[in-house]
Specification:
The protein has 204 residues and is of the alpha/beta class. It has one domain: 3-Layer(aba) Sandwich (Rossmann fold), CATH 3.40.50.300. The chain contains eight helices and nine strands. Strand 8, helix 7 and strand 9 form a beta-alpha-beta unit. The chain is globular and about 45 Å long.
Length: 204
């Protein structure tokens, strides 16, 4: 059994949290100890005197391993903007080493760690590193959430190319219909499947 998966997306708001939660629930139902991790969250609300991200709360709700939020969400920012900008506004720098330490600690507590990224695969974390660098450091296979809307073929293929260029491993992909009025939905899915060939589509 693999110890971790990294959930990335073709864009922001394509359903990464939804898919991450579904994966957690699936593994919990199979008897595994599972915890969700959101290394960087931008966009929080004040709850009981603490700034908390809604995605983090959703991951916590379905995890059957309870861990300190300092581990499941090392970096959390109030403004719903790109992580590196949100960090700069608070005078902080997102450090991949800090996230790796938290990830390693969670890996000791759980059989499986489901890590949800922020935005897409190349979202900057600081001046020199992106989400892609975090994926390589964690060495976790990727599950790509493709938001099925106008432009999804291009977005998906560009993301896959970026993943392969950085020698990261993609375990599978999920087609998430985020535009219910999209024309030729099945045709777009079929074209993506044809282009991806050996990469399996995950049915969640």
């Amino acid at each position: 059994m693999k110890k971790a998966f990294f959930i990335t997306g073709t864009d922001t708001n394509v359903g990464k949290t939804y898919i991450a939660c579904k994966l957690i629930q699936q593994y919990v139902s199979q008897g595994y100890k599972v915890v969700g991790m959101k290394p960087v969250a931008a966009g929080c609300e004040l709850i009981d005197g603490e700034w908390v991200n809604d995605d983090v709360l959703k991951l916590e709700a379905v995890s059957n391993v309870k861990a300190p939020r300092a581990l499941t969400n090392p970096y959390s920012f109030k403004e719903p903007i790109a992580p590196h900008i949100a960090a700069e506004l608070t005078g902080k720098t997102i450090e991949i080493s800090v996230i790796k330490q938290a990830f390693d600690a969670l890996s000791q507590l759980a059989d499986i760690v489901i890590v949800e990224g922020a935005g897409g695969f190349l979202v900057p974390l600081n001046e020199t590193e992106t989400m892609a660098d975090l994926v390589k450091t964690l060495n976790a296979p990727i599950i790509l959430v493709a938001g099925i809307k106008l432009g999804c073929i291009n977005h998906t293929l560009l993301t896959i190319e970026a993943i392969k260029t950085r020698n990261c491993h993609i375990d599978g992909w999920v087609a998430n219909p985020i535009d219910p009025d999209m024309c030729f939905y099945d045709d777009n899915i079929a074209e993506i499947e044809k282009k991806l060939q050996l990469i399996k589509q995950i049915d969640i």
